[in-house]
Amino acid sequence: MPDRGTLLRVEQLRKVYEHPTGDVEAIGDLSFTMDAGELVCIVGPSGCGKTTLLKCLAGLLRPTSGVVEMHGAPVTGPSPAMAVVFQEYGRSLYPWLTVRGNVELPLRHKKLSRADRDTLVADALDAVGLAHAARSHPWQLSGGMQQRVAIARALAYQPEVLIMDEPFAAVDAQTRADLEDLVRELHARRRISVLFVTHDIDESVYLGQRVLVLSQSPTRVREDLAIDLPAERDQISTRALPRFTHLRTHVYGEIQRAKRGQNVAARPAP
Amino acid sequence: MTAYPGRIAATPRRRGVGSRIAAAGRHALGLPMLLLVVWALVATRATSRFFPDPVTIADAFVDTWVGPAFVEDVLPSLARLGLGAAASIVVGIAAGTVIGLTPWLRELLEPLLEFLRAVPPPVLIPVMMILLGITDTMKVVVIVSGAVWPILLNTIEGVRSTDSVMTETARSFRVTWWERLWFLVLPAASPRIMAGVRQALSVALILMVISEMFASSSGLGYRIAYFQRNYLIAEMWSGILLLGLVGVLLAVAFGLVERRVLRWYHGIREVHRA
Fold first, then answer.
1. Over the stretch A160-185, which tens digit does the pLDDT of each residue have?
2. Where is the ABC transporter domain (chain A) (predicted)?
3. How is chain A split into domains, by residue range?
4. What residues in B contact A96, CB-CB < 8 Å?
């Protein structure tokens, strides 16, 4: 019996890309669970298969073996309970549609009245602070604003979990700080679950309630770390806490060890 | 909620619309005016009756085309051109989309399509005359048989090269097949499709004239050939002038539609240049 609070369960996930020159094992053996309402960050060395993992979770890629379950039901394709925010906002928003049109597109096949749809779009744009830009086109906006549009599109879709794939990798540091706070605020106010994939260690510790540290490819979960920082976080004071420094140093060390391919000492065999 | 400051880029506006149109007009008409003057000077000195001066041609233009000939010759020609172009656009985009979205069909058909495109369309006129007779249908079919290729091949190319992240986005949000076609595949291919339509329109105009010169009892092509055979030289030139004007009007109309359809495309390019 799955736990009632469990939203997402990943069990012995494995993904092998078949190549004529030899198969590539992107994900080795990966298991974790995520409760409803959690904000979990996944961090790992570059090239460790984070994007592959995320596509398997979102139902965009079929795993070679293993299980991905939402509320106890296997995920076999894109689910209405999930919304993905991609890293490349420039290629994920449609330039021929307005900001409004982009946010509205995924709602068209939902059986909603015109008024309900309008409300959802306006509400989502308002939540990311872009109500004034509804009639603009994405390419008229800065990178950070474009990623806000992508977040609004995901919010309007009303998913249970927001899956974010290194969403802020391509924006400047100040914009990134604003967007991080936006994600925390949306998580707190809308009680939406967030699975946030990043390569940025500080970002993972600042954002997450939990951080999953991945190993080098073939990927496994190296460590499942609870982040015991206060729930109210702020860019200046939280990042100055000794506990924050301690946690980030710990994760940093884990990643370094992962890069060198050292085994995890304290992990029981599956 | 914090207010997020953000700048929305506006396309730069340099000068007033009026002065820009005036400048464009000066540039567009300056050289033709100069050439007309040169032509008039040369024509008054030349002895050949095959090169009448512009005033004679202008007179012939009014006498020939303003009046019943407009209804008997110009309108049927334009109707064939319009039908042929419209059919080419519809068939080219529809077939191109199906072929572009179906990999096995594309691989099967591509060599054949390249061959058919390489066949000069006027050689089909004798064949079509046998198959369809000397009818309007024959002329429209000839126009389509030449004008459809640039649209078809460009649509196939545009449809197959839809960006992978955009496609994945649509999949992840479970956007339906028809919505994907209408909001993703066709708009993404539209710059290429429009490039194909631009080529197709000039091909269609050429084929309209040629098909009428071959086999017709009305139309611009027929009239021009008739004037030439009967040594009505000024009238012949006036027909050529009218064809040129039709071509220019077609290009202007296309430009207006293109600006509307590809506004986002030109907008992006302008933002990147700025």
1. 999 999 998 888 889 999 999 999 99
2. 8-241
3. 1-79+212-270
4. 187-188, 190, 264-265
